[in-house]
């Protein structure tokens, strides 16, 4: 794992150029933001959701630490700078529409601002759960839900 501080200026610039090349596939919302789902890289547990603008995306992709745009404070924040609960980037992927980012991280400490490991363990809901019919394979390709094909 390489933190940006261990990179040479040339390596940082190359990483930023690679991230910039991806921007044409990213679909930011009307406020210029992209939801970023943060997932523990080895367990695949979803830790939190944050927001990134273009610059936060570029920083995350090129510096090895997750950077968000705070909608309430209107400023950038890097997870762990004040709490010590750092997120080291291990991988990333855009969804099929380019409007959501998945960032796989190595989480150090709690991911949630409340001090819990994940933001999704405080208010568990009780949905109806049904089994899929046995004749369907678990990873079978489904018809395109948007156009019904």
Describe the structure.
This protein is α+β, with helices and mostly antiparallel strands and 149 residues long. 16% of the residues lie in helices and 25% in strands. The protein has helices at residues 9-22, 54-63, and strands at residues 34-40, 46-52, 67-70, 75-78, 87-94, 101-107. The strands form 2 sheets. A 4-stranded mixed β-sheet has the order 2-1-6-5. A two-stranded antiparallel ribbon has the order 3-4. Strand 3 (67-70) and strand 4 (75-78) form a beta hairpin. Helix 1 (9-22) packs across helix 2 (54-63). The N and C termini lie far apart (43 Å). The mean pLDDT is 88.
Task: Please describe the topology of this protein.
Elements lengths: L8 H14 L11 E7 L5 E7 L1 H10 L3 E4 L4 E4 L8 E8 L6 E7 L42
Parallel strand pairs: 1-6
Antiparallel strand pairs: 1-2, 3-4, 5-6
Percent of residues in beta strands: 15-25%
Q: Report the uncertain regions.
A: none
What is the mean pLDDT? 88
Distance between the termini: 43 Å
Largest sheet: 4 strands, mixed
Sequence of secondary-structure elements = HEEHEEEE
Total helix count? 2
Radius of gyration: 18 Å
Strand order of the largest sheet: 2-1-6-5
Instruction: Tell me roughly what share of residues is in helical segments.
Output: 10-25%
Q: What would the principal axes of the Cα set say about the shape?
A: globular
Count the beta strands: 6
* Class based on secondary structure composition and strand pairing: alpha+beta
List its traits.
single chain; 149 residues; 4-stranded mixed beta sheet; two-stranded antiparallel sheet
């Amino acid at each position: 794992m390489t933190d940006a501080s261990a990179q040479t200026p040339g390596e940082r610039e190359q990483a930023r150029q690679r991230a910039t090349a991806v921007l044409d596939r990213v679909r930011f919302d009307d406020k210029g933001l992209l939801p970023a789902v943060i997932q523990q890289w080895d367990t695949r547990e979803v830790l939190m959701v944050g927001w990134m603008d273009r610059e936060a995306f570029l920083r995350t992709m090129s510096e090895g630490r997750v950077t968000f745009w705070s909608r309430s404070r209107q400023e950038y924040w890097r997870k762990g700078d004040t709490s010590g609960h750092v997120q080291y980037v291990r991988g990333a992927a855009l969804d099929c529409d380019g409007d959501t980012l998945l960032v796989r991280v190595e989480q150090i400490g709690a991911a949630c601002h409340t001090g819990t490991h994940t933001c999704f363990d405080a208010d568990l809901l009780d949905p109806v759960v049904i089994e899929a019919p046995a004749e369907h394979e678990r990873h079978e390709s489904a018809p395109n839900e948007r156009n019904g094909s």
